[in-house]
Amino acid sequence: MIPDSDVLKSKSGPFARLDTLQAIELAEGVEIRLRMAGPYARVLAYALDLLIRIAAIAVVGLIISLFGFILGSNVSMGVYALFMFLLTFFYYVIFEAGKRGASPGKRVMGLRVVDTSGAPITFGQSFIRNMLRFADMMPIFGYGVGLCCTLITKRFQRLGDLLANTVVVYDSLPVMTSGGLPPVVSAEAPGLALSREEQAAVVGFGERAGMWSEERRIELADHAAALTGASGKRGMTRLLGMAHWLVEKR
Amino acid sequence: MQGREFEQRNAERWREYEQSLNGMDSATGRSEDRVSVDPAKIPVMFREVCADLALARHRMYGMSVNERLNTLVIRGHKLLHRRASGTWGTFFQFVAVDFPVAVRVEWRLLLVASLCFVLPILGVVLIGFYWPNFTWIEAILGDKTMDSLDMMYGSSDRQIENLRSEYGSNFMMFSHYVYNNIGIDFRIYAGGILACLGSFFFLIYNGVFFGAVVVYIHVACSKEAFYSFVASHSSYELIAMVVAGMAGLRIGLGLLHPGRKTLAKSLMDAGRRSLPLIIGAALMTFFAAIVEGFWSARDLPVTVKYVVGIAGWILCVLYFVFGGRVVLAKKVRKIEGGAA
After folding, report:
1. Which helix (H) or strand (E) element contains residue B274?
2. How many CB atoms lie within 10 A of CB B73?
């Protein structure tokens, strides 16, 4: 008789996920999974945008100081003030409302701003989320409010995101390089009847195993010792065999 | 069917779909792709890929297929749900109907924001006129502001007009007002999310400051120079500031008073409702900057400027009282007619 597979379920229930995927159901009846971007990637994107803006100020300032005499000092000062106005208030608004839905810094980090339904955002949404930066960046450009807000909301939304109903997601997934995977010796049927979630976990282990070091593979496989009936390197090999069986032989 | 077989069988279809997406995406699309795309086929292909994704998920065909299909569906979803960008038509619709209607709908906030701005002005002006001690006005303004006030309005011999006679100075001042005044509007707005406190603070602070300026002008400068300069743009600039305050209070209320909605939904709705207010306020301030930059300092008879100023106030009141009413009434009649 095949024993029940409850041994593999964690105490918090089988659906308590640790990942940052957000499932959104479309009108077509299918779920898409958006990968929410956390504060770390967004802080880096912000730093990049900051550098880009500083560079833009420097370049435009240089051009105006070199060629400003053609327009006259007053006109060139006016042009500079208008440029500063656009850069301060509309840099993000225009880029995020655009086709790519991301400021240059976000684009470099592979991020994109979308509606919580996964659709592109409107100009209005972009306007709201970026005007609220002035509240999110308190105190004194430290983004303390924004950071706290992203940490307590489920989808890493800062105040501007909450008001505009937007989220920041990974647009393109990082390419996963897998190499150095030990060849699977033998496909092996699991000794237990696995639920769908559990099967997915085992298959996922097999698919990702190439990205980890041997020690990490063994460490992770040890969590499934109840399934493989072995620990250490032997347990890992058996788990890989089961993953192989689930993909190929079933 | 195994995952690999599923992938092989549908690969051609997915490739075709992906090519159509590439072609439609003008940002990355190559011209030869675009020619061959039949836009009418994309929704069909999109729904097929959706079905593929659902199937692949259910049969657990593994991460790579799932991820690939997930990405394909997301791309199609983004493409199909792309909203048409605004046209001049939507802009005129906004100015003629949406903005004044939004302000009327929020008349309670209009009342509160106006009082927060007008009462401090009145208070400071009254105290300033009847209080013999002048030092506190000086304390509010600070030396720098008083110097610039002296420079602009110090005597009645047309100082501003002379300051602005230099080539390009009108444009420079226009840009300065755009940066400064629209920036103030945006700060008033963003401050509202802090439980309305930010908006209240900026409105009251600006009210006190303006009151102090008025008192200082009456005591130390030329009243005529001041009023003839500010008359023309005062209506648009001051009303816009109050409207920006309304937008800020709206989002603050979304946080403070969700009512029967969840907090997230309440914030979302507050954001949506505040949008026409703050955009309208920014447009009005922009218009005020044009007037302030290119008209207010013109060397014209004082009476002309006063007439323009009063006309501006009357126009603004008429605009907010009657703007969009006709169009709305027509719409209501249409709906009623349709029902009957």
Report:
1. helix B263-294
2. 25
Q: Which chain A residues contact residue B182 at CB under 8 A?
A: 85, 89
Q: Which domain holds residue B208?
A: 88-331
The domain in which residue A69 lies consists of 35-170
Q: Which residues pair with B176 in a beta bridge?
A: none
Q: Answer yes or no: do A114 and B50 touch at CB < 8 A.
A: no
Closest CA to B65 of B76, B55, B79: B55
Closest by CA position to A178, among listed A211, A203, A207: A211
8 Å CB contact between A74 and B171? yes
Q: Provide the number of CB pairs (under 8 Å) joining chain A to chain B.
A: 150
pLDDT in tens, B159-204: 667 667 777 788 888 999 999 999 999 999 999 998 899 999 999 9
Burial environment of residue A65 by CB neighbours within 10 A (0 to 12, 13 to 18, 19 or more): exposed
pLDDT at B285 over 50: yes
- Residue B193 has its nearest CB partner, among A127, A132, A199, at A132
Whether the CB-CB separation of A248 and B2 falls below 8 Å is answered with yes
pLDDT at B1 over 60: no
> Do B49 and B191 fall into the same domain?
no
Q: Find chain A residues with C-beta within 8 A of B63's C-beta.
A: 203-204, 207-208
End-to-end CA distance of chain B: 58
Chain B residues 188-217 within an 8 A CB cutoff of chain A:
189-191, 193-194, 198
Which of B57, B193, B269, B277 is best to mutate for the A interface (most A CBs within 10 A)? Answer: B193
Specify if A136 maps to a domain.
yes
> For residues B228 and B224, what is the distance between their CA atoms, to the nearest angstrom?
6
Instruction: Give a yes or no: residue A208 inside a domain.
Output: yes
Type of residue found at B304: V
- The verdict on A50 and A127 lying in the same domain is yes
